[in-house]
Specification:
This protein is mainly β. The chain has five helices and 29 strands. The protein starts with a helix and ends with a strand.
């Protein structure tokens, strides 16, 4: 009877383990007590090795019904983040996932060069959860620069798998670094010999994928640069860059300058600030004497310049204008609201200046009206107002001389910025032909001019002046 009881126990175990009838029959035939007990033990052990009902067992059958694992939340790198190549290796950081099961979670991280993760550069599994509700993975190696990467993560418990996070991209780049240039000239506390000094500096050092370099120079009357006197830019030159200031500075004054470099994406720092001084005001020009030259006819006197053109800087007119023979005298000037009317001995009649037709003109002109201004103790002169024979007046009202006559700083600075004040002394002259925009005198068929006369600047009510 004892073997039969053992067989019954074996049957129960066999049924629980899902053994076949043939297996049960064979086991029931084992009537030897020791052999029967051994067979039962082996059957139970085999059943336990195949399946486990313990959810924490490594051999648990999965997925376990009713267990849900959420996706982690990506924290860093965030979408579109740019990581400098020298800030590597990259650290991936997620907020931990949640699970309704009892099994511990681990994390999987993937990085690829495409959004479909066909080209993975990293795949790590079994990353234990971190403290504080966050898990991180610091890469062992640096990623290649100049590329966009895609990454994702998910949580698993060995039996169940959670969903992947949303795919996030980030860029690894080589940063552009532009350093400060080194000022060379004007040197520290130097005194320059011109009101338009040249600014020289050693080019800025740089690294990374730098584009075309441009320099910004600023000049101010204090080292705070609250009041900038001039600011201009220029392209980089090999090794050392030189840029001329586009406007005149004042005499006998201390200025401060600095310079910075930039490319289309990156702005470098300013250089150190250096102070310099401009020259003293030159002594006034000597009393002018008449410029010798052929007169309109033998025995006809020619009036002297009231301001010597030889002491003036000629802008946008023939550079040798001061040396042109003075062959006529201005006898009258009317400063009107509609322009300047000027009379001189070679305007009309026999021996008048010949007409000249500039290229592109439909008709000729006869002469050009010029002005002489004193700016910061220095004379500047230019002849921009063109007249044809019979034109009575031109140039606009007195209050708009700077705007109408010298509107372009590229040609007439600093006269562009100087509107004569009422009561200020200004000079006028005329020259034969077209003296505007022609520094070589090619627009004048005879290269002659009048004397320079001086008048007092009126209001727009105008004024008339006569000369003998």
């Amino acid at each position: 009877m004892r073997p039969i009881r053992k067989a019954v126990h074996i049957n129960v175990c066999a049924v629980r383990c899902g053994l076949s009838r043939i297996q049960v029959t064979l086991m029931n035939r084992l009537l030897v007590p020791a052999a029967g007990m051994l067979a039962a033990a082996l059957a139970l052990t085999a059943c336990e090795a195949t399946k486990s009902s313990n959810p924490l067992s490594p051999a648990v059958a999965g997925p376990i019904p009713g267990v849900n694992i959420s996706a982690p939340k990506i924290l860093e790198p965030f979408a579109g983040q740019k990581i400098a190549v020298d800030r590597q290796p990259v650290t991936l950081l997620v907020e931990n996932a949640l699970t309704t099961g009892v099994r511990p979670l681990s994390y999987t991280f993937d990085i690829a060069t495409d959004a479909n993760f066909n080209n993975k550069v990293l795949a790590r599994e079994g990353i234990a959860p971190g403290a504080g509700g966050r898990t991180s993975l610091r890469l062992e190696d640096s990623l290649a620069t100049g590329r966009t990467y895609f990454w994702r993560a998910r949580a698993v418990d060995g039996a169940n798998e959670g969903p992947y996070t949303s795919t996030m991209s980030f860029d690894v780049f080589t940063p552009i670094i532009i350093e400060a240039p080194t000022p060379v000239a004007p040197g520290i506390n130097a005194t320059v010999d011109t009101l338009r000094p040249r600014f020289v500096f050693t080019n800025a050092a740089r690294s990374g994928p730098v584009g075309a370099i441009t320099y910004l120079v600023e000049v101010a009357d204090s080292d705070s640069f609250a009041n900038k006197i001039a600011a201009w830019t220029g392209s980089e030159q090999p090794n050392r860059t030189s840029l001329d200031i586009p406007t005149d500075l004042a005499y006998n004054k201390v200025y401060y300058w600095h310079v910075r470099a930039y490319d289309p994406t990156t702005l470098g720092p300013f250089s150190r600030t250096q102070a310099f001084a401009t020259p003293h005001v030159p002594p006034p020009p000597p009393t002018p004497t008449p410029t010798p030259g052929p007169g309109p006819s033998p025995g006809t006197p020619v009036a002297a310049d009231m301001i010597s053109l030889a002491s003036a800087t000629i802008l946008n007119s023939p550079s040798d204008l001061a040396r042109w023979p003075v062959t006529t005298s201005i006898t009258r000037i009317d400063l009107r609201s509609n322009g300047v009317h000027v009379e001189f001995s070679k305007r009309d009649g026999a021996g008048r200046w010949p007409d000249y037709t500039p290229p592109g003109w439909s008709g000729p002109l006869q002469y050009t009206l010029g002005m002489v201004l004193s700016i910061d103790g220095r004379y500047y002169a230019s002849a921009p107002i063109e007249f044809w024979n019979g034109l009575d007046a031109s140039g606009g009202p007195p209050s708009r001389y700077a705007l109408n006559w010298f509107y372009d700083p590229g040609r007439w600075a600093p006269m562009t910025y100087h509107q004569p004040a009422v009561g200020e002394q200004i000079g006028f002259f005329v020259c034969a032909g077209d003296c505007r925009n022609r520094t070589d005198g090619s627009g004048s068929p005879v290269k002659e001019r009048s004397n320079v006369v001086v008048v007092t600047m009126p209001s727009d009510a105008g004024a008339s002046f006569t000369f003998r």
